[in-house]
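Replying to the earlier thread about multi-chain prediction with a worked example.

Input:
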Amino acid sequence: MAKAERDIRHLLNLLALLNQRKGDRIDRVADELGVSRKQLMADLDRISLCGAPPYGPNDLFMAVVDEEGRLDISYADQFRAPMHLTPQEAMALRTAVMPLLGRTDQPFSRLAKGLLDKLELALLPQDRQALDRLQRSMLAEAKGSDAAPALEALHAARTRQRSVEMAYYSGSTGQLKRRTVDPYGFVLFGGSWYLVGWCHLARERRIFKVGRIKDISITERNYRVPTDFDISPYARGSLFKPSGREALVRVRFSPKVARWVLESNSQAKRQRDGSALLELRASGFAWLARWVLQFGTEAEILEPPEARAEVLRILTKRKA
Amino acid sequence: MAQRKTERLLSLIALLLKRSRPVSKAEIRQGIPDYRMASAATFDRTFERDKRELREMGIVLHVRSVADGREITDPREAARHRAEEIGYTIDRDEYYLPQIDFTPEEWAVLSLAYSGAGRQGKGAETSGLAAKMGCLRPGWGGAGAGEKALAPPLAGLAGSRPDAGGERRLLGILQEAIGRGRRLALDYYAIERNQRSKRTVDPYLLAMSSGMWYLIGYCHLRKAVRTFKVSRIRSARPSGTDNSFAVPGGFDGASYLERKAWEFPVHEPVEAVVSVNPEEAWLVRQHLGGRASWSPDGRRASVPVSNREPFLRWACANCDRAKIESPKELAGEIGALLDKVERRYRHG
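Result:
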């Protein structure tokens, strides 16, 4: 996109937003746009230099901030709404919701589909075809499509605020246990769905991988999601927030497999001999033992001893 | 220069959007200083270019008769009219973003999507979607208090990868090439060989699997349809003209997406028979996917394997849940390998 075009788009959007935000504080609007107050002020000055010919007193835009920091704009009514979406913008949004879509029917894929249908209304009819062509060139598959029925039940339970009873296979202990859980929220992480909820067995807030739920039923028991519950932190950084009870885990990978590990694990460091050393903190080791086992003799857990014991437990069990 | 051009184009839009009747070419020239001060030839050239740029931006500009508002679509007819007779309009219906009623849940998804699509960008592009969507609903995209109250229990649309911003730029290039049917020149890192190579690829499809983006297309180097991990594409640029290839009629993108790594065509396919610990059969069923066939008692699965290495890795990781019965040499190889691992963990 050429600079002038970017510039125009920006001013057109800004004019429309200012029309919608008359009387709002400039800091809030700057925050909404993700720009600094200074940058927004500079844009207001620029807008005030523009207008519609013949530039009479009612033709020149007037964007001002009063002493209390409140915004006002006059004589720019023709920009009361922004320009329709471009196919590129619709596509950018679509790409971003792709992970939700998946190829199996589940509550969040329906939500995403409904949303995308509505987004099409914001496009010009002649642009819809272009978008359609782009859309057909994209596909998404969430891992473990078998998780769809469990996700369906969890979503229904959360909507009705009813606890669920589920048989859950724990990745950290490697055990299948029945638990009563109050579903608080859902996270899509690395292509897999996770449930955040209150576990009545553990008496604490826990994260469950939806694909590891063996069976699930909605109970008659009511619960309430705590008013201060916020799912968004789970989407930032690592899904699992350390509790302080975790042990340091060190795994060595031979030079033969090091590059795969280094590609997808930022905690892995390349060693001088070409091998990789992964250091992380974990409190259960079943998933780790399996993950390391797939590398055969090319990887070894160095510590803690409990994690090494877990590898041996799996290896011994194979002969049973 | 750019600043003057921005003001000129903005004035033109402001004028046409303010009026519902056609504004004559003569009035436009008189009204906008850049046009007024230019020679007739320069004005014509600049005005033509400006109109083209507005249209490229997605603004629909109609040419109409000033006298009766009739649309003039034939450029030869337009050229016959005098500057006072020919006019321009921007129809408001075609300009404004319509009001869309999203549900609170949809808003939250959009806000998640936006935080993935826009926040990592810079300046004008970042605020573009935010401003447009903000006009549809106050408080959108910002950290406003209203946002949190309405938010449904959903998070984490963006991948967890640290270089997601760079990948997004690449996705834009790939998407455009697919849409236009343009051949691509890729600089691709093949991790198996541990080397970079230049590839010419006809891009068919972008696919997301397990949170990762893949490009599926015809590779001219390998002379076959190949899957490229987008994060391993170091650079991509269109190398051909529009519609420089056609996606073959029999191409089925979904089948590429559903394939397990051990189903990639690397060697002659063999059937691996696996006996499964009944308590954990439900987990194994998830792992093996739809192409495995199961015995009626649900204890044995037959799996098509045409890429040994990934299957071997799966079998090692799940050695206590699933036992390889045949082929015998594969079972023997896995057994020997795991014995070696076991000795290492037991003795040192």
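Chain A has four domains: 3-79, 87-135, 145-235, 247-317.

Feel free to reuse this layout for your own posts.
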